[in-house]
Amino acid sequence: MTFYNNQLEYRVTLNTELNLFIVFDKKDENHFATGQTIEEAVQSLTKNL
User: Is the pTM of this model over 0.90?
Assistant: First the structure.
């Protein structure tokens, strides 16, 4: 699924083996972040912009 916030469009996946959410920048798939919640992963991704 693709989501939007004020700064970027992102795609969310869940790694069920590690129980981590992975958030990918829709414009650059090499730019991603992980977190135990979607919110943590998005915050981590936006910090690296």
Answer: no
Three-class SS state of 44 = helix
Gap between the Cα atoms of 6 and 13, Å rounded: 20
Beta-strand pair 9-15/2-4 = antiparallel
* Cβ(26)–Cβ(4) below 8 Å: no
With the C-alpha atoms ordered 41, 7, 32, 15, is the resulting torsion angle positive or negative? positive
Walking along the chain (49 residues) 10 residues at a time, the average pLDDT comes out as: 74 96 94 96 88
Q: Work out the number of other CB atoms within 10 angstroms of the CB of residue 17.
A: 6
